[in-house]
Amino acid sequence: MAPALxxxxxxxxxxxxxxxxxxxxxxxxxYKEAFAQDAKTTNYEGELNGVGxxxxxxxPNYLPFWDDTKYPPYEPFEAxxxxxxxxxxxxxxxxxxxxxxLCANIGAEVKGVQLSKLSKEGKDELALFVAxxxxxxxxxxxxxxxxxxxxxxxxxxxxxxxxxxxxxxxKGFPKVHLVHRSAADTxxxxxxxxxTNSITWHSDVTYExxxxxxxxxxxxxxxxxxxxxxxxxxxxxxxxxxxxxQQRLHGLKAIHSGHEQAASALAxxxxxxxxxxxNEHPIVRTHPVTGEKALFVNPQFTRRIVGLxxxxxxxxxxxxxxxxxxxxxxxxxxxxxxxxxxxxxxRVTAHTAILDWQDGQRRHLARLTPRAxxxxxxxxxxxx
Length: 384
Ligand SMILES: [Fe+2]
Known about the structure:
Layout lengths: L12 H16 L15 H6 L48 E4 L6 E4 L8 H14 L1 E4 L9 H9 L20 E5 L5 H8 L19 E8 L7 E5 H6 L3 H7 L3 E5 L1 H9 L10 E5 L1 E3 L6 E3 L6 E4 L4 H17 L4 E4 L6 E5 L3 E5 L9 E6 L16
The structure holds fe (ii) ion.
Fe (ii) ion binds next to loops.
């Protein structure tokens, strides 16, 4: 019998792989998510009661929930950076403290200070100290043990909290952003079937018109080894560029988009609390207290340089993203320990989580995210 003129195509294994890869690539074309979590991947019973060899969550009050409350778009507000009022000798913040630099040009570790007990002067100095050091790990803190509202009240001294559009939050506290991977969760293995590394350099939620400034992340539960967070000094990244290149970047703006993050959440059946936004920000921003200039682009949210054609924009952004990612001489890798609160200035740093443990240990952190001023730039200055 002669073959039919039109054959029904059979799906080959190549088709199936192509379909799977295409679906993932479509979502992750610009937004890479190594820590995507939602209600389906959260093992509530295991977290409350323990699972296998893993103990119950140490902080069940911080387990993540995704309720479908919708929030209106953000309105502009007048931001005030308390670092402006700080005594630069840090006599209220650091008296009697043990302070050690993590690296020569970024980061410090502090012992002997209880953040939650700081006076107004101490908090002002904290804002300045973190702006100068870029990232500071405070050890032996009680923030996680306080009632959640008290932790929020502490952070809101620095600015009104950001409510994340897609992340899990403790029940009744949408202003707390949670990073959570349940005990016995093995999705890291699935992730590495598709990707060679988990590195996702970014500054938090830069798609907002007024992204965060002084930002707090504290450990609730973590693996015995691994899950560190790496930070990059974006002010030093700017200073490394030649004057001619710095000058070229001044005046350029880039579009930062939250649309891909929202699409990724919806594609896995999760929620989006606020309609996604995109905003234009200067590529070089100025810190309102220190006056330092810093690169303000990141591969997770920065999509396009305004006024350039796609190829031109891609070329220049790729250079800047590589410059940030590859310059280990302006980065620090910060280790977590029980009681650690890491504070960074989101305006002058980028960071990435590191997914390097795959033995199913729980990782659970909470972020308090005060919003700051709309990024602005000041004119290029020739070095003296
Ligand atoms: Fe982040």
